[in-house]
Amino acid sequence: MSLRGTAGLGERSPEGQAPALARRLSELLSSGGDSLCLPWDRFSAWLHCLCVVGFDLELGQTVEVLYPEHAKLTDKEKSNICYLSFPDSNSGCLGDTQFCFRFRQSSGRKASLHCLLDEFETDSPLYLKKDPACYYGYVYFRQVRDKTLKRGYFQKSLVMISKLPYVAFFHTVLKQIAPEYFEKNEPCLEAACYDIDRWPSPSPGKTLSLPIMGVVMKVRIPTRLDKPGTTQVVEVTQQTDALISITLPTVHEVDLFRCFYPVFFHIQMLWELVLLGEPIVVMAPSPSESSETVLALISCIFPLKYCSDFRPYFTIHDTEFKEYTTRTQAPPSIILGVTNPFFAKTLQHWPHIIRIGDVKLAGEIPKQVKVKKLKNLKTLDSKPGVYSSYKSFLNRDEEIIKQLQKGVQQKRPSEAQNAILRRYFLELTQSFIIPLERYVASLMPLQKTISPWKSPPQLRPFIQDEFIKTLEKTGPQLTSRIKADWIGLYRHFLKSLNFDGWFRTRRKEMTQKLEALHLEALCDEDLLDWVQKHTEVEAVDLVLKLKSKLVQAKREHLPVKLSTLETLQAHIHTIILALPEDLQGILRKTGAA
């Protein structure tokens, strides 16, 4: 990182940068814990950059400000950010609007490897890991009348670009920064970035206190060990409560009930479509409703990670527009959120379209409507509903519909309705995944087959028909009250990207478990006794293999106890000492663990 890149924020002269840099370095070196961090390292653990997008009468949307100034964005990425940071003109978003988008990282660029972020990745739930191929854009857009401007309107967006899918968190951060920025301009952004660069890393399982613009946000990043469906209460301590202004119950969740309210008679069908990775278009009146609905869709199958592509807000200017609207091939596995009426025509050949009207939770119960035929969708002004010819595998669950309807009639708080719906989706997903988990666990070799003197045994292959046969006795009917063609649903799911992503992860975890068990078996052996019965060449070969195992365990974060690694290191040391001095020197230098 160059001195210019690490120095100040924004466009400041080298003379002005030096004292600030020296002061910042002094802070970091005296902070303990993360004292090896350079300026911007902590910032980079949360954000790639922060930018301001404005409207120029001659150039259109442009990136006016970029923090930090050394942040790299290709021309293609800047173009995507510019177009995605403004609502379509037809949206008529007066005042302040918040939404999010997602776009591809340009090919040929190395994935961002933040020294702080990566060490915590193994503890994150799958659905909250940083995105290796895409960026998220979190937008705070303001449009107000201004007669002093030629266009008659002030239009500007403050945008946070990040690899992290923390939508609720970043929207809250923007609410603290953006209004003040629109009043005071750049000095405010510099102060905000300075605050963020003092934040601790986004460590899963820890309650973090994050200062921003004079307030302190208290958040907890979930871990993969959290029980699904539970929200860990953020602990409030008396010593610091006076400083805490905002406590966030979640960093990533959206209000499912509010998003699905216009189409809640079809929630089971939507769950199926997302589970199977079907191509879906969400047509909404504004980017905020578009992006929230898309995020609600991908989250309805949690804790299963949605592995296909998704774009919470997509425009006709997007660099992938032609790729997704072509009629020469079947639509890809993706969920698109759109607001431009033009899409009603260009995406009419897509198999599943969700039309969302203006979301109102005024106590009215949406009229029960059948799934509509796609041919009836002529314009974006068509009535709200689901347009598809899909035939569901699940029978309608009248109980959840009645429960939600009763909540609307009784004016049950939206938070309670959201909790009911989230719990329903969780139980449905778990009922579906448990038989798969049970079958995949049976592919694991028995522990007694693991020998320290042989390579770890391989997992048995996943055989579809073999799995299907297990459903008769151990299928979802054991845990779900819903009647369904479960076998038909599983056969389709096994062809999906969601299954592929889930199984790859499970196979990797199980393979690592086998490696860990193999390490434990090695540690339990009397290796010195083995060495004394074999040749020097074989002893050297063993040392090199043990060192390689040790490096692998640390690199891949294998699920082994620290004591196991220490025992293995001690074995290596003992074996080396038993060898001639000339070999000892060579082995200590070779592949140092």
What does this structure look like?
The protein has 593 residues and is of the alpha/beta class. It is 42% helix and 14% strand. It has 22 helices and 13 strands. Helix 6 runs antiparallel to helix 7 (186-196) and helix 18 (497-523) packs across helix 21. The protein is globular.
Strand order of the largest sheet: 2-1-5-4-3
The largest sheet, given as strand count, sense and whether it forms a barrel, is:
5 strands, antiparallel
Give the helix proportion (percent range): 40-55%
Broad structural category? alpha/beta
Radius of gyration: 27 Å
The fraction of residues in strands falls at: 5-15%
Taken from the alpha-carbon principal axes, the silhouette is globular
Cα distance, first to last residue?
28 Å
Low-confidence stretches: 1-33, 111-117
Number of strands: 13
Number of helices, where a helix is a run of at least 4 consecutive DSSP H or I residues:
22
| Rounded average pLDDT | 83
Throw out a few tags for this protein.
single chain; 593 residues; alpha/beta; five-stranded antiparallel beta sheet; five-stranded mixed beta sheet; disordered N terminus
Task: Please sum up the structure shown.
The protein is α/β, with parallel strands linked by helices and about 600 residues long.
